[in-house]
């Protein structure tokens, strides 16, 4: 099994972890192989991004927004750990998944949600290429950013994907957040609110 085919199997495991949080089953991961028998770093990054965003969109639209529309006593809250009857915000659910992957030495990749307008400083760009990628997707919302970068003694393939406002709960939270400075953008559906950074080691 080549390096990225092995990583792709890891992605399926990650998907199971994330979807399990939304109650979506316990299927056994199976290897997936391209027609050529190998998967490039770009194909791998595109695949993991597709899985991540599908899970996040389902959580935002069909759990968080649906609970709100139905007037449920349970709602999404930034302070879900301290408040009764609350669940994590979509961005928090996404970050918890990325933290689990970061702790998994066998995952072979990392991902994070970043923004040029972070409400939380930990979501700001941490490398020149992350900042370049975030600016690119804001200027080109229908394109992805791909590049290589050296961090420490390792070289990484880094992909940045536009993170668009897909659920009212998302832009409402940002537009009304107490940390929002005066010059903060007023987001609406379809706007690029940030970017998903997928980083794959090449060494």
What does this molecule look like?
With 203 residues, the chain is of the alpha+beta class. It has one domain. It is built from five helices and six strands. The strands form two sheets. A four-stranded antiparallel sheet has the order 3-6-5-4, with helices on both faces. Strand 4 and strand 5 form a beta hairpin. Helix 1 packs parallel to helix 2 and helix 2 runs antiparallel to helix 3. The chain starts with a helix and ends with a strand.
Could you list some keywords that capture this structure?
single chain, 203 residues, alpha+beta, four-stranded antiparallel β-sheet, two-stranded parallel ribbon, 5 helices, 40% helix, Tll0287-like domain-containing protein, signal, Tll0287-like_dom
Could you provide a short overview of the structure?
The chain has 203 residues and is of the alpha+beta class. The chain has five helices and six strands; from the N terminus they run ααββαβαββαβ. It has one domain (41-201).
Q: Report strand %.
A: 15-25%
Helix content: 40-55%
Determine the oligomeric state from the structure.
single chain
Question: Spatial order of the strands in the main sheet?
Answer: 3-6-5-4
- Characterize the overall form: globular
Q: Helix-strand pattern, N to C?
A: HHEEHEHEEHE
Domain Tll0287-like: 45-201
Protein name: Tll0287-like domain-containing protein
Keywords: Signal
Signal peptide: 1-22
Give a topology summary.
Blueprint: H1 3-21, H2 41-69, E1 75-76, E2 86-87, H3 90-103, E3 110-114, H4 128-139, E4 145-151, E5 154-164, H5 168-175, E6 192-201
Parallel strand pairs: 1-2
Antiparallel strand pairs: 3-6, 4-5, 5-6
Helix pairs in contact: 1-2, 2-3
